[in-house]
Amino acid sequence: MFKKLKDKLGVVKEAISSTIDRKAANASVEEEPKKDKKKKVGVVKRAKTLIVERELILDENDLEGPLWDLEMALLESDVALPVAEGIINSVKGELVGVHKKVRADTSDIVETALRNALIGVMSKEMFDLDDFIANATKPVTIIFTGVNGTGKTTTIAKIASRLKAAGYSVVIASGDTFRAGATEQMEKHAERIGVKLIKHQHGGDPAAVVYDAVQHAKAQHRDVVLADTAGRMHTNVNLMDQLEKICRVTPPDLVIFVDEAVAGNDAVERAREFNAIVPVGGSILTKVDMDSKGGAAISIAHITGKPILFLGTGQKYEDFMKFDAGWYVDQLFE
Ligand SMILES: Nc1nc2c(ncn2[C@@H]2O[C@H](COP(=O)(O)OP(=O)(O)OP(=O)(O)O)[C@@H](O)[C@H]2O)c(=O)[nH]1
Ligand SMILES: [Mg+2]
What angle do CA 279, 285, 290 make, to 5 degrees? Predict the structure, then answer.
């Protein structure tokens, strides 16, 4: 996974490490104490002693070149510019002025700084959806948003199947009254999983479908309402207004933004627009099994300020995993 970003991070890590090591080598020669000259101690031994005893202090100039390379690597891997800059500042903040014991493994220090920066971006306001559902007042209403074809309907089916297996009663609202065949697609999933589907006529008002689903769930004491919505471009004002209306009529407990790992840099703009219209509480990144560069998760988490909750890794219900920032970053470094 994410081979390109992984390769580039490896190169950048080496570049920063060797810059630090070069500085360390210079420092040990420059700082050679004069009194040592009297003693006939070999250069190697002397350098070794100095390296053990001294600490190296890094400054910004040492890191300028390698950090530029890091920024380029992130941008080329679909990490958005402000996000890449945030990561660079974080790495810089961690490395500049570091009193590095020269004997410590430079490569470890660099990798730790990079890892911390990436995990920092992706772990913001992290929460667990299972805990959220367990603790919320029932029925819990979750509305799924995103552009066309990102995997909203499939993701709802995966979550419904998962929740049912955990013992929850689930109602699905077929809020995509717009695309031909959308309700039939959701209906097939609902039948297969064995959960209730609330639907209206094609072309009906999606806000009314979601409202009805929640009323049904309240009356029947169901635990969770998962509301599908039609895919829409973030630039389509009418459809974005409609989304705002759905959430105004039925204020959800959580809005989940669904986008695909292969979306690349486009994900940034649409995450921003969707979040502006209906504030996103968490995101799900699908199609991670397809060839992606790895940057979309980092960007979406940064733009929304909310965590990635799950990753979709295929078309089957079980191709779904909880997002773990540490694991994700491991994929970039392993
Ligand atoms: N490989 C892969 N395919 C996926 C994944 N999630 C969804 N898909 C596929 O992506 C396609 C679109 O999925 P849908 O769930 O219909 O997407 P949607 O967002 O509901 O689409 P619209 O309703 O048209 O906006 C389908 O062929 C899914 O099987 C995933 O994690 N991996
Ligand atoms: Mg759909």
Answer: 155
Domains belonging to the chain, first-starting first, are 3-122 (1.20.120.140), 129-333 (3.40.50.300)
The Å distance, Cα 188 to ligand 1 centre, comes to: 14
Pocket of ligand 1 (CB under 6 A): 146, 148-154, 176, 179, 182, 231, 286-287, 289-290, 312-315, 319
Cα–ligand 2 centroid distance for 323 (angstroms): 22
SS3 at position 208: helix
Beta carbons of 288 and 313 less than 8 angstroms apart: yes
pTM: 0.86
Q: What is the pLDDT of residues 101-142, one digit of tens each?
A: 555 666 677 778 888 888 888 888 889 999 999 999 999 999
Distance between CA atoms of 85 and 30, rounded to whole angstroms? Answer: 34
d(CA 131, CA 135): 6
